[in-house]
Write a structure and sequence with these properties.
Layout: H1 3-11, H2 23-40, H3 61-74, E1 87-89, E2 118-122, E3 126-134, E4 150-158, E5 160-163, E6 166-169, H4 170-175, H5 182-204, E7 206-208, E8 223-225, H6 227-234, E9 239-241, E10 244-245, H7 259-270, E11 280-283, H8 285-297, H9 304-316, E12 319-320, E13 323-327, E14 336-339, E15 344-349, E16 354-360, E17 365-378, E18 384-388, E19 391-392
Parallel strand pairs: 2-15, 9-18, 10-19, 11-13
Antiparallel strand pairs: 1-16, 3-4, 5-17, 6-17, 7-8, 11-14, 12-13, 14-18, 15-17, 16-17
Helix pairs in contact: 3-5
InterPro entries: Phage_P2_GpN
Protein name: Phage capsid protein
Pfam family, one: Phage_cap_P2
Length: 393
């Protein structure tokens, strides 16, 4: 039985009959539909439009939308999917190769940060992080004594499973059946939300729990150990805390008079000169806003045009501590990560990506189950540092 016929059977809850068919065909269709009613429990949604297992012509728009949504989410033509027990497993040989996919983003935030870092496939769930970095200078004269050209920092990664499941209600499938690009739009929205979740874990994750608890950990702290926590646990000597910024009125004095002075002081002294190139300051947008707002709020009205142009340039090309500022959603408001973006990696295990599409009439929805194994890696701790717990006086 092909996929299209199976879809018609799964969705049918009525007794639609085709007058052009013979009586015995009508009886067969009725028996099939009644059996599906019994198996599914009818779903409890009378507003959903269902289809007959015997209808093969003039496909209803909602049925066509159902099939198109499945194709969009699976990336597979519906003829290649085989349903069993109301579910279809997407073949692994057609699963997209990278967890960090692109798409039309309908969300307010952007996950473009993922395109700037390393997305690295690994074959095993556990293994050694092989960072090949420069050693001491090689140039010399006199007696030849070859030295190793690279140093190997022995650390380990552990890719663990994270689930990214979603669903579409029957009512939505019917409501948007006339919207031609609905499958692409909903897929783009899901892709963007999933990529945002990768950042949410990367900046807030502290551990991996077998069963996560969103009530206790709304920022998905229990879905994996992210980059910031890796610094805190594996390179705590490179985490600088206890720093503060003085108030503008200097009533309360901090360790530094400005956020720029604080950040430049830290990276200039904590990071070796050989790593200074390509450094950026990763931060939350609210930290930049806190820096820029006083500048904009105190524009000189007598030189308005000049000051507006200057401030627009500053805002369009933000800097922190003489480094390019890179804002990312979900980054802690009281922290700044100083490093090269290519020093941040997301490891994912090849062959671990699993997709399951399941029709769930008892919930009145079409469900998409997706998971893979991943880990967040700092390639070289020496090439960066974390300023944690910044206090504004």
């Amino acid at each position: 039985m092909n996929f299209a016929d199976r879809i018609k059977e799964i969705l049918e809850r009525g007794n639609v009959q085709d007058k052009n068919k013979k009586p015995e065909v009508h009886d067969m269709i009725s028996a099939t539909n009644n059996g599906l009613k019994k198996d599914s429990g009818n779903g409890g949604n009378n507003e959903v439009i269902h289809y007959s297992a015997g209808s093969g012509v003039n496909i209803h728009p909602a049925q066509a939308m159902y099939e198109r949504v499945i194709e969009e989410f699976s990336g597979v033509s519906h003829e290649k999917l085989v349903f069993s027990a109301d579910a279809a497993i997407v073949p692994r040989d057609v699963v997209l190769p990278s967890p960090a996919q692109t798409g039309e983003r309908a969300a307010t935030w952007s996950a473009a940060f993922l395109s700037e870092i390393n997305i690295i496939p690994v074959t095993k769930d556990k293994g050694e992080v092989l960072y090949l970095g420069p050693t001491d200078p090689l140039a010399r004269t006199g007696i030849r004594d070859p030295r190793d050209s690279v140093s190997m920092d022995q650390r380990f990664y552990y890719c663990q499973q994270v689930n990214f499941d979603t669903s579409i209600s029957y009512s939505d499938l019917n409501r948007f059946s006339g919207l031609e690009n609905y499958p692409r739009l909903v897929r783009a929205a899901v892709d963007n939300r999933r990529n945002l979740d990768l950042l949410l874990i990367g900046f807030n994750g502290t551990h991996h729990a077998d069963v996560s608890n969103p009530e206790i950990y709304p920022n998905r702290e229990d879905c994996g150990m992210g980059w910031l926590e890796k610094y805190r646990t594996e390179a705590h000597e490179r985490v600088i805390s206890g720093l503060s910024v003085s108030s503008r009125e200097t009533i309360t004095t901090g360790t530094h008079y400005s956020i720029d002075g604080l950040i430049q002081d830290v990276w200039g002294s904590a990071i070796d000169e050989r790593w200074h190139y390509d450094l950026v300051a990763v931060c939350n947008y609210s930290l930049l806003h806190r820096k820029h707002f006083p500048l904009i709020n105190n524009l000189d009205t007598s030189r308005m045009n000049t000051e507006i142009l200057v401030n627009e340039k500053i805002i369009k090309n933000p800097m922190l501590g003489n480094l390019p500022a890179v804002t990312a959603p979900f980054f802690p408001e009281d922290a700044v990560l100083i490093t090269s973006l290519k020093n941040l990696s997301l490891y994912w295990q090849e062959g671990s990506i699993r997709k399951l599409i399941k029709d769930e009439p008892h919930y009145d929805r079409l469900a998409f189950y997706e998971s893979w194994n991943e880990d967040y890696i700092i390639e070289n701790y020496e090439a960066g540092c974390l300023i944690d717990g910044i206090i504004w006086k």
